[in-house]
């Protein structure tokens, strides 16, 4: 099974408003068009969006997002990021045609799980004990399957200070839990860069952003105008590909 993971789109109510000199609607449309035109070659079965769909939490942004995603005619799942308004995101999801729960996207010997890393009015992420306990319970219930976990915040530093100061601050706790149960994959976004790391049995992949990337190693808001996403082949030998357009 091949999953396209995208993240950090940053749509807003005003379609003409640029962000760091980037028209995010234009770049998002470019990505959707690219996937549509190359769907056969990409050979994807579904998509997972790991947050920050909107930067202003507007209904208009989510309405546009779901409409654009439905153009792909593929099942997809979307979780919220620190910029998102979860209430409006859920409200507009009622109009989506191909939106699925994450567990319905998984197939074969894989189980896909999500965990909330959001802290109200903060850029950094944190997973509270009740969420961790719920995740552990779900992992136990899927002990006969390979486990993939999706969240917004990156649990390991990526080497770019502007985002590493607001990563998942209890990432070590999550990773220890994943080590204990031999979780195979963690997919996230938030960092506006690509990063793939290996920790014991776990492949930890940060999907590049749709809107733009931060310059590697930057302490300030210095960006690179490119859009990217990951494609993960969930098979016996897990494989991750990164695309920039």
TrEMBL record:
The entry's keywords: Hydrolase, Iron, Metal-binding
InterPro entries associated with the record: Calcineurin-like_PHP, CNP_phosphodiesterase-III, Metallo-depent_PP-like
GO MF term (any one): metal ion binding
Record domain Calcineurin-like phosphoesterase: where: 1-193
Keyword Hydrolase listed: yes
Highest taxon in the source lineage: Bacteria
SUPFAM superfamilies: Metallo-dependent phosphatases (SSF56300)
Pfam family, one: Metallophos
Annotated family: Belongs to the cyclic nucleotide phosphodiesterase class-III family.
Name of the featured protein: Calcineurin-like phosphoesterase domain-containing protein
């Amino acid at each position: 099974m091949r999953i396209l993971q995208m993240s950090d789109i940053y749509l807003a109510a005003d379609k003409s408003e640029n962000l760091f000199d980037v028209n995010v609607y234009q770049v998002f449309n470019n990505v959707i068009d690219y996937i549509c035109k190359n769907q056969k070659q990409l050979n994807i079965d579904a998509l997972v969006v790991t947050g920050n769909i909107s930067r202003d939490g507007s209904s208009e942004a989510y309405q546009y997002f779901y409409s654009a995603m439905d153009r792909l005619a593929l099942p997809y799942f979307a979780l919220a990021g620190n910029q998102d308004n979860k209430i409006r995101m859920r409200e507009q999801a009622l109009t989506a045609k191909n939106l699925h729960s994450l567990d319905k996207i998984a197939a074969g010997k894989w189980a896909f799980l999500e965990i909330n890393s959001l802290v109200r009015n903060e850029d950094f992420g944190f997973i509270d004990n009740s969420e961790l306990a719920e995740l552990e319970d779900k992992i136990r219930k899927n002990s006969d399957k390979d486990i993939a976990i999706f969240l917004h915040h990156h649990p390991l530093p990526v080497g770019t200070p502007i985002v590493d100061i607001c990563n998942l601050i209890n990432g070590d706790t999550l990773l220890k839990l994943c080590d204990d149960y031999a979780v195979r994959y963690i997919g996230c976004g938030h960092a506006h860069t690509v990063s793939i790391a290996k920790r014991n049995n776990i492949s930890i992949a940060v999907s590049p952003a749709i809107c733009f990337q931060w310059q590697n190693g930057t302490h300030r808001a210095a960006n690179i105008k490119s859009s990217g996403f990951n494609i993960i082949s969930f098979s016996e030998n897990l494989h991750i590909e990164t695309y920039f357009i």
